[in-house]
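User: Can you model how iron/sulfur cluster sits in this protein?
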Amino acid sequence: MNSQTAIAADNDGKSTWKFLLRELKPKGRWLTPFNIISIPIILFGIALIVIRFWKGIGAITNLSQEIPWGLWIGFDVVTGVAFAGGAYVITFMVYILNMRQYHSIVRVTVLNGFLAYLFYAGALLLDLGRPWNVINPIIGNNFGVSSVLFLVAWHFLLYMIAQLIEFSPAIAEWLGARRARKILSAMTLGAVIFGITLSMLHQSGLGALYLMAKDKIHPLWYSEFIPIMFFVSSIFAGLSMVIFEGSISHRVFFSQISEKNHHKQRGIVLGLSKICTGSMFVYFFLQLLVFIHGKRWDLINTPMGYWYLLEMLGFVLLPMTLFFYSYRSGNIMLIRVAAILTMVGVVLNRLNVTIIGFRWDMAVHYVPSWMEIVVTLTVLFTELWIFRWVINRLPVLRDSPAWVKEENN
Amino acid sequence: MDLHRRDFLKVMCATGLTLATGTALNATPKNKYTPEFHGILYDSVRCKGCRGCEYDCADANGLPEPEPTKKIRGLRKTDENHRTVVNEHKTSKGLVYVKMQCMHCNEPACTAACLTQAMSKTKEGPVIWRGDKCMGCRYCMVSCPFDMPKFEYHSPNPKIQKCTMCYDTRVLKGELPACVENCPNEALMFGTRRELISEARRRIYEKPGEYVEQIYGEHEAGGSGWLYLSPVPFEELGMNTSLQNASYPALTKGFLYSVPSVFVLVPALLLGIQQATKKNHPNDDSDDE
Ligand code: SF4
Ligand code: SF4
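Assistant: Here's the modeled complex, given as C-alpha cells:
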C-alpha cells in the first residue's frame, strides 16, 4: 500500500487540504518518453484550440458544407465511446451476474470509461459552433425530444454521473473518508443498473444518429439496423480495449498490482475472450443477415465492396476465430493480437459509417487536416495524463487500504 | 347486471372515442383555426435565369451581393453566403434554369434532428432557424436530405444559413417573400400548399407538351413547401430523384419509440438477474463496493 494513502487514512481526512496539495504534485521522473512526446503535442493542440475559437471551426478543420462531421465526431466521439463500452459490460458481469472473479478490473475499467466520456464527449464541445448554447437542451430551455442527438447528449451526461458514483468509493478511500465510502458504496448497484440501461441506449443511439442520413452513407454500411450493430459491437470493442489496456497497465503500473491480481489476470483475459467470441459471432451473423436481406451482392465487386469485405473478414471474422482458438488453447499472446485486430476493426467500422462511407460518392473526399489530428491527439494524451495521475494515487489497480477490509468484516 | 354492462360499454366508448379523436384531431383540425402550410411554386418553364431572386434574397437577408458570374451552368450550390442559387442546365429541351434553396419540408429532417428546437417548422409552413437556441452541432446538416442548412465555418459566432421563406421579416407582416415579390417572369408563386398543387396541376393539364407530369416536392421526402414544375425529367435538372417518399424523421421513430420501454424493462430485468445470481454467491458480499 502506498504511504500517502495510509497517511490520509490515518488522519481520517483531517488535513485533507494539505494532503490534496501534496497529491497534486507530480510523482516520479519527468523525462519519460511519454512525457517528451505528449507535452509538446498537448501545448501545440491548446494553441490550435485557441485559434479554433478565435477564427472559427473552418480555420483548423477540413469540414465542408456537405461533410459537417469529421474526425472529431467520427473518431473522438463515436469510436471513443464504443471503446468505453467495456465499463458497462464489466459492471454487468460483476454486479448483475455476480461474476466475482472479474472484480479486480472493475475500477480501472470504470475509470477508463469515465475519462473516455469526459474527454471524448468533451471533444464534442470543440466541435460545437455555438457552445454557449449547449445548456439549452439541458436546462429545459428547449427540449428537442424528437432528436436522437438530444437523447444521446442526455445519456452521456447521466451516464457520466452514474460512472462517477460507481467509481466514487475509490475516491473516498483515497481521501480516507470512511463514512462517505459507506454511503457511496451502497449506491453502486443502482448506478450500475442505471448505467447499463443508459449505455444500451446511447451506444445504439450513436448509430441511430445516422439513420436520417440514409442517402449519404454507402449502402453497405447503412441499414435500419445500425443502432443494433453499434450496440453489439460496443460489447467486444469495450472488452478488447479492456484486454489491451490490461496488458499495458500490467507492465507500466507493475508495482501497483498485487501478486494475487497478477495471477488472476490470466483467467480474466481468457474469460473476456470467450465473451468477445460470442458477441462477435452475433455481430457477424447480423451483418450477414443484413447483407443477404438487402440483396447487396452487386455492390461487392466494387472498391467499396472490397473495403467492406476487408472489414468483415479481416477484422471481424479473423479476430473472432483467433479469440475462439486462443481461449481454447490458453494462448494469451494470441488473445492480445485478436484484441488489437478487433479494435482496428471497430475503428474501421465507425469511420466507414461516419467518414469514409459518408458521401463516398462525392468528387472531393474529406480527409482530416493535420490540425484536427493534433487536437485529437491532444485530447487523447490529456486523458492519459489524468489516467496516470489517478492510477498513481487512488486505489484503482492496487488494493484498497486496510481499513476497508476491516470495516467490511 | 344489465346496468353494469351498459356502464362498462359507456366507459369503453368514451375511451375509444378519446383515442380515436385524439388521433383524428391531429389529422384534420376542423373547429380550431390553424393556418395551412404555405409554400412556393417554382415553374422552371417560366424562369429565364435572370438571377434577380439571388440578389433580392441577399439583399433581404443582409448577405453579401452575389457575384455577377456569367457561368451559371452546372451545379453551383447554396452556401453560407447564398441562401439560393439559380443554375442553368443543358437538357433535352434546351437550356433550363432551376432555383435551389431549402425545400421547407412538411416533416423536416432538420427539425427532427435539432436537439434545441432551433430549427423549427412554423405553423404557417416556413422552416426557420433561431440563433438564440442553436448550439452549432450541425446535426441538421447531416440529416437534411437536400443538404440545405449551411454553416459559417469561418466565424467565431457561426450561424446556420438557409432560406427561411422570409418568415419573420416579411411573411408575418403579410408581405410576399423577397424572391416571389420581385420575380419579373412570374416563375414564383406564394400560397397555401393546397392552392399551389392545384395550380401546378392546372398548368400541367393545360399545356401537357410543356411540362413533365410530376410536381417535385409533392411527395419527395414526405412532401415540401417548395414545389417544382419542369419541362424535362427532374434528373436533368440535377435534382435528387432517388429520395424516399416517406418523411425522413420516420427513419428514427422506431428507435425513439423503443426508448421508454427499454427504460422500464431493462432495469427491472437487470434487478431480477442480480437477485437470482446473488443466491449463488452468498459469501461474496464482503467484497462489494
Ligand atoms: S430542405 Fe432540409 S433544411 Fe429545408 S426544411 Fe427540409 S430538411 Fe430542413
Ligand atoms: S446546428 Fe443548430 S439548428 Fe442545426 S441541429 Fe444543431 S442546434 Fe439545431
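A couple of observations from the model: Chain A touches chain B through 69 residues (CB under 8 Å). Confidence is low (pLDDT under 50) at residues 1-11 of chain A.
User: Helpful, thanks.
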